Design the sequence.
C-alpha cells in the first residue's frame, strides 16, 4: 500500500513538473530571462513612466486604474497627475488610450491589444525579449520588424531610446527555453564585439539611441516589471498575506493534532 | 453558581425536548454523528470524503460572492472578472479560491474514488453508495465544464466550442442538438447565459442533493475500513462494534487534522502559485474570448485530460487494433474459457456487432463513444470486481499489477491530454487507452485468480 501511494505521488509530481515546465517554456521560442524585482518600487515607477509615455498612446490598459497604480507604486497624487496622467483628468479612471480603435485599425491593420494582462498571456521573459528585438526592415510596411514576433504590425515605439538595430545573424544553438542574457552576453559578447544577442538573433546597433544598450535593457526590464505588476496588481500583497495564513494554518494543524491525541487517548 | 448552571442545563434540556417532539433533532444527531460507528483504523485515505464536503461548501460560499460582482454577458463577463480581481476588496482572493478550488475539488474526489477502489468500498453492500458517487463525479464534471466558460477567456470559449461540437457526431440529431444546447450557431452570449444559470443554480442543487443521498446510502450500510472487513461481525452486548468508534467527536476531530493539512496545500497554491504554471489558470484565458482567433493548442483543464486523451486517441488505427482485440477475446472464449455455450454465443454475437460498428463509425464518433464508455466503466466496478477479499492489503498479485498499470495509464493519459498530439504521443495514448479499458474488461478474470492473503477477523489497529 505504501508502495502504491509512493507510485501515485511520483507519477503525479512528474506530470505536474513536466507540464508546468512545458507551459512556462511556451513553444520553444528562445527568450531572454528578465531580471526584475517586484518589490523594487523605483524600478516599477520607472516602468510606469515608460509605459504612459511610450505605450499608452496606442495601447490601453483598460482594467487598470491610475490611482491604484499610484497607491501600489507609492507615487504621490500630484506627481501622478503631472507626470503620468495624459489620457484623463480623473485619477480614479481606467487607463484607456486616446487613440480611437477605428483609426488604429486603419493605421496598423489591427487595433493594438490591451496591455492590462499581457504579462499573463505571454510571459515576462517573452515581453522583455520582444521589446528588445525590433530591427529595421525595409520590406515591412512600418519599416520595422521583430525577430521574436515576425511581421508584427507594431513599429518600434522606443527607437529613440534604443537606436536602430540591424540583424546580423542567428545564434546557432540547440538550446530551447530561456537563455540567461548575462551568461550568453558574457560568453558570446567578447567574440561578437559590438554585436548583441536578443533571443536567438544577433543584432548590430547601426544608430545609437539616447540610452546605452545596458541602460535600454534596464529600462525594458523596468517596463516588463510594470507590465507584470499590472497583470496582477495584488501580487505585491498576496504573498505577504499568504505567509501569515500558512503560519496560522501550521499552528492550527499542530493544535488539531494535540486535540486528536487527547481525545483518542482512551481508544485502544 | 452550581444551582445556576443546573438551571441552565435544565432549560436547555427543556428546549431540546420541545424541539424533539416536533423535529427529530437529537435522533438525527445521534444516528448520524454521536452514535454512528466507524472503524477506528481509518487512515490517511479516509480524509478525502470529509474534504470533498469541505470543498463543496467552500465552492458554494465563494461562488455566492463571485455572483455578486460577475456579469453573465458576453460584452461584460471578461471585464467583470478583472473588476473582481482588481477593484472588489479581496475579490482576487475569492476568485483564486474558487478557481483553484475547482482543481482541488477534483484532486480530492479522484483520491476519494481511488480509496474506494483499493479498499473495496464499492463492493457489496455499498454498491449504491458507489453508484451515487459516480453520478456525483459526472455532475461535478458538468459543473466544472460550465463554470470554465464563465470567465469568457479565449480558452474558455474554444474549450467549450470543441467539447460541445462533440455532440455533432450523434447520427441524425447531432448538429440540431448542439445548436439547441448552445442556443446559437456558435458559442455566444446565449450559451454564456444558460451556462451561468446551470452553473450557479441547477448543478449546485443537484450536487447538494446527490451528496445528501450519498451520505444517506452510506449511513444505511456503514463505512468500510482499510481492512475491508465488516466491523459488525464483532459487537459488544449493546450491539456496538468492538472495533467501531463514534463519528462525533472522534472522527470529526481526526478529520480536522486532514482539513488543516489540506488547507495548507490549497491556500499555499492560492497565495503562492495561483496559476499553477499555466495548468490551473491557462495563459490563453487571460485574453478575452475571440471567435476569430483559435489558441494554438486547445486543451481542457487537467481533470478532464485523461478522458480527452482517450477521445483524441481514437483514430482508424486504434479502431483496427480494437477489432483485432475483439477477435482475440472471442477466440480465447471458444478455446480456453470454461463458460457455458450460451455465454460463448452471446459474446460472439456482441463481438460481431462491435466489429461492424467499428467498421462503419468514424474515428471521431468512436472517440466520443470511448470517452463516454471510459466514464461508464466506473459505474460497473462493483460487479466487475470478483475478488473474495476487499482490501488491497489482502488482494492477489494480479490485481495489484493490474491496478498499477491502470494508474500509470490514467496519469499518462492525463499528461498527454495537456499537450499537443504528435505521432509518438498519439501511439502512447492509444496504448494507454487499451490498458485503461483492459483494466475494466479483464477485471472479472484477474480478480478471481492469484492467491489472496487471509483477512483478519478484527481490524488492524495500533493505538498511538
Sequence:
Amino acid at each position: 500500500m505504501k508502495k502504491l501511494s509512493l507510485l501515485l505521488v511520483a507519477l503525479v509530481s512528474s506530470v505536474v513538473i513536466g507540464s508546468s515546465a512545458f507551459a512556462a517554456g511556451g513553444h520553444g521560442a528562445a527568450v531572454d530571462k528578465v531580471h526584475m524585482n517586484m518589490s523594487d518600487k523605483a524600478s516599477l515607477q520607472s516602468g510606469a513612466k515608460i509605459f504612459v509615455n511610450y505605450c499608452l498612446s496606442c495601447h490601453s490598459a483598460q482594467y487598470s486604474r491610475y490611482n491604484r497604480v499610484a497607491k501600489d507604486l507609492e507615487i504621490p497624487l500630484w506627481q501622478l497627475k503631472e507626470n503620468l496622467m495624459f489620457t484623463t483628468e480623473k485619477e480614479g479612471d481606467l487607463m484607456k488610450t486616446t487613440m480611437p480603435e477605428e483609426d488604429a485599425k486603419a493605421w496598423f491593420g489591427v487595433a493594438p491589444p490591451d496591455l492590462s494582462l499581457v504579462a499573463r498571456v505571454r510571459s515576462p521573459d517573452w515581453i522583455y525579449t520582444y521589446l528588445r528585438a525590433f530591427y529595421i526592415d525595409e520590406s515591412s510596411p512600418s519599416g520595422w520588424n521583430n525577430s521574436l514576433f515576425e511581421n508584427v504590425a507594431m513599429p518600434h515605439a522606443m527607437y529613440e531610446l534604443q537606436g536602430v538595430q540591424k540583424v546580423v545573424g542567428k545564434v546557432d544553438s540547440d538550446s530551447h527555453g530561456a537563455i540567461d542574457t548575462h551568461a550568453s552576453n558574457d560568453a558570446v559578447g567578447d567574440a561578437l564585439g559590438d554585436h548583441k544577442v536578443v533571443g536567438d538573433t544577433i543584432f548590430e546597433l547601426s544608430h545609437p539611441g539616447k540610452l546605452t544598450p545596458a541602460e535600454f535593457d534596464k529600462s525594458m526590464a523596468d517596463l516588463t516589471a510594470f507590465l507584470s505588476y499590472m497583470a496582477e496588481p495584488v501580487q505585491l500583497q498576496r504573498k505577504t498575506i499568504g505567509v501569515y495564513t500558512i503560519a496560522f494554518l501550521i499552528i492550527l494543524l499542530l493544535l488539531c493534532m494535540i486535540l486528536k491525541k487527547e481525545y483518542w487517548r482512551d481508544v485502544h | 453558581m452550581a444551582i445556576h448552571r443546573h438551571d441552565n442545563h435544565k432549560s436547555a434540556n427543556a428546549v431540546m425536548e420541545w424541539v424533539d417532539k416536533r423535529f427529530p433533532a437529537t435522533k438525527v444527531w445521534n444516528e448520524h454523528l454521536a452514535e454512528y460507528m466507524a472503524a477506528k483504523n481509518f487512515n490517511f485515505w479516509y480524509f478525502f470524503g470529509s474534504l470533498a464536503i469541505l470543498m463543496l461548501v467552500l465552492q458554494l460560499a465563494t461562488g455566492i460572492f463571485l455572483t455578486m460582482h460577475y456579469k453573465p454577458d458576453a460584452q461584460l463577463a471578461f471585464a467583470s472578472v478583472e473588476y473582481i480581481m482588481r477593484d472588489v476588496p479581496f475579490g482576487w482572493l475569492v476568485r483564486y479560491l474558487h478557481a483553484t478550488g475547482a482543481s482541488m475539488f477534483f484532486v480530492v474526489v479522484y483520491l476519494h474514488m481511488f480509496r474506494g477502489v483499493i479498499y473495496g468500498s464499492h463492493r457489496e453492500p455499498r454498491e449504491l453508495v458507489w453508484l451515487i458517487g459516480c453520478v456525483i463525479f459526472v455532475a461535478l464534471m458538468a459543473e466544472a465544464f460550465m463554470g470554465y466558460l464563465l470567465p469568457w477567456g479565449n480558452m474558455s470559449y474554444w474549450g467549450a466550442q470543441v467539447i460541445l461540437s462533440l455532440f455533432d457526431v450523434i447520427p441524425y440529431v447531432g448538429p440540431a442538438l448542439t445548436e439547441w444546447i448552445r442556443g446559437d450557431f456558435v458559442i455566444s452570449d446565449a450559451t454564456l447565459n444558460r451556462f451561468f444559470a446551470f452553473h450557479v443554480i441547477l448543478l449546485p442543487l443537484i450536487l447538494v442533493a446527490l451528496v445528501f443521498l450519498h451520505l444517506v446510502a452510506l449511513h444505511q450500510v456503514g463505512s468500510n475500513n482499510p481492512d475491508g472487513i465488516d466491523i459488525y461481525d464483532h459487537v459488544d452486548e449493546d450491539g456496538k462494534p468492538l472495533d467501531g468508534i463514534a463519528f462525533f467527536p472522534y472522527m470529526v476531530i481526526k478529520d480536522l487534522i486532514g482539513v488543516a493539512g489540506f488547507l495548507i496545500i490549497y491556500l499555499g497554491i492560492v497565495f503562492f502559485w495561483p496559476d499553477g504554471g499555466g495548468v490551473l489558470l491557462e495563459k490563453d484565458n487571460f485574453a478575452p474570448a475571440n471567435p476569430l482567433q483559435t489558441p494554438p493548442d486547445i486543451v481542457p483543464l487537467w481533470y478532464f485530460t485523461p478522458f480527452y486523451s482517450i477521445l483524441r486517441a481514437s483514430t482508424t488505427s486504434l479502431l483496427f487494433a480494437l477489432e483485432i482485440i475483439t477477435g482475440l477475446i472471442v477466440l480465447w472464449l471458444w478455446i480456453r474459457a470454461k463458460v457455458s455455450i450460451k455465454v460463448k454465443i452471446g459474446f460472439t454475437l456482441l463481438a460481431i456487432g462491435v466489429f461492424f460498428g467499428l467498421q462503419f463509425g468514424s474515428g471521431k464518433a468512436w472517440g466520443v463513444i470511448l470517452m463516454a464508455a471510459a466514464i461508464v466503466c466506473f459505474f460497473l466496478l462493483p460487479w466487475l470486481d470478483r475478488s473474495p477479499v476487499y482490501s488491497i492489503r489482502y488482494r492477489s498479485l494480479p490485481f495489484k499489477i493490474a491496478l498499477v498499470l491502470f494508474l500509470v495509464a490514467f496519469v499518462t493519459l492525463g499528461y498527454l491530454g495537456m499537450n499537443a498530439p504528435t505521432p509518438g504521443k498519439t501511439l502512447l495514448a492509444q496504448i494507454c487507452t487499451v490498458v485503461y479499458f483492459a483494466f475494466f474488461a479483464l477485471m472479472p478474470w484477474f480478480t478471481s485468480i492469484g492467491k489472496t492473503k487471509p483477512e483478519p477477523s478484527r481490524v488492524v489497529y495500533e493505538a498511538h
Observations:
- Residues 186-191 of chain A have pLDDT under 50 and may be disordered.
